[in-house]
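FORM 7B: Structural annotation worksheet

SECTION A. Query
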Amino acid sequence: MPTLERALVDADGRDVAGARHTFRWGQWAARVVVLVVAAMIVHFLVTNPNFEWGTVWAWFRAPSIGRALWTTLWLAAVSMVLGTLLGVFLAVARMSANRLLNGLAGVYIWFFRGTPLLVQLIFWFNLAALLPQIGIGVPFGGPKLVSWSTNDLITPLTAAILGLALNEAAYMAEVIRGGLLSVDPGQREAARAFGMSSGRALRRVVLPQAMRAIIPPTGNQLISMVKATSQVSVIAMADLLYTVQSVYNRTFETIPLLIVAVLWYLIVTSVLNVVQAFIEDHYARGERGTTGLPAMVRRRLRGRRGAGRAGAPVTTIEQGDRA
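SECTION B. Predicted structure
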């Protein structure tokens, strides 16, 4: 068969000389529908005077909105950091062979994941109704060494941080536990073979490898945390949503002020999405081209192999690594 004729026959032996591109009516119809709907939405946004875009732009740059946005950002950051730190301890306890630690961590995660965040915030804000005084002393009705008024301690700020951080810790514990379980158990065995303690092996060997599995859901949790801060408005915490509500309760410009809040939330979450993508790419590059062990352990293995060639005994781990 001539070369040209062979090129016109596909892998199944069918003659494709007369093949033609099929016009995909369904795809083009879907594109037209999407374009029409998008044009309708844009027309609605531009021509509807009830959006009051001038008012939106004026309040979008208002100093009071800027201060409320800053409150939202640092409240989300502080709560996320505290929740992540507590989540690490909960994840380690959840994986512990100690039944007491394992059980306590399980109960904590069960309770805070099983109750709505809004209910937790309202509970912490009204803690004074349950405990008028918080003190340190002899239990079971004994004398108190020092005590404080609960109303003085539990302000809207402390209630917001307690509610957000304790709730986030339960979710981060499961995220971190899943990341730790994704690491090959042989990594822990290799770290122990080099004389590392359990804590140091966790910090130097296990956690760096688990980060690739931990980062994506942690980024999602951070974005959810930014949005979850809007719920602190029910306890009079002056975040972005609470400030917007205070303004439109005075001016009755409900829709424009809500659009201001929506735009700022979209901007913040979009920036966080970009940052998350860069971090994920960084850890993905770190995983590509590695032998599975962290660089520190690989350097020690290379040193041990050199010692083995010089006449020193080679350990079982080194033999497996060499294989």
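SECTION C. Observations
Residues 254-287 form the longest helix (34 residues). The longest strand covers residues 144-149.

SECTION D. Sign-off
Analyst initials: ____
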